[in-house]
Amino acid sequence: MNVTVFYDYNCPFCYIASRRLALLSGEFDLSIEWKGIEIHPEFPPEGAKRGRSVKSLIVRETMGEAAEEGIEIRPPGFAANSRLALEASELAKTVGRFEAFHYAVYEAYFGEGLNIGKTDVLLSIGERAGIERKALADSLERRAMRGAVAANEREAAVYTVLGVPTFILGNFPVHGCQPLETMRTMIERALSRL
Hints:
By secondary structure, the protein is of the alpha+beta class. It has one domain: Glutaredoxin (3-Layer(aba) Sandwich). It is built from eight helices and six strands, in the order βαββαβαααααββα. Strands 2-1-5-6 form a four-stranded mixed sheet. Strands 3-4 form a two-stranded antiparallel ribbon. A hairpin with a 2-residue loop joins strand 5 and strand 6.
């Protein structure tokens, strides 16, 4: 079954849902297409300062779900602009390193508190994920994957995606980070409709 996932790197629920979907892809024959969209284009390239109350809220809302997936969410004191990270992920797809890069970005941001809006951070993440540094640097400098992210955003508009994560299971939309068992049931239901 084809599954389209709309995600953004500054969303901790996307991180959790990505892990759950990866687990379920081992149980079901899923062809997953990842579509990064920028949910906060208003954040400046250097990021936006985040108050303690927002950090506490993120931890409170994600702690239980993240622990179920073996993830510790430690939001940094800023909200990153994710546009360059999304463009880098599109390059990662072209060189067969998307999955490694995808999870490394989430870990860098929510685990290490790194600013994923900065080119040098993305180059380091890319190297860890097995992407040639020069190829990624050239792509980011030329903004070569800007059009791919814009195409993702146009497709999200067609599906009326209002937030992330959003999954399109076949033709069946699922909004938000669902518990593992709920996702399993929804995939089974979508498969039964094929």
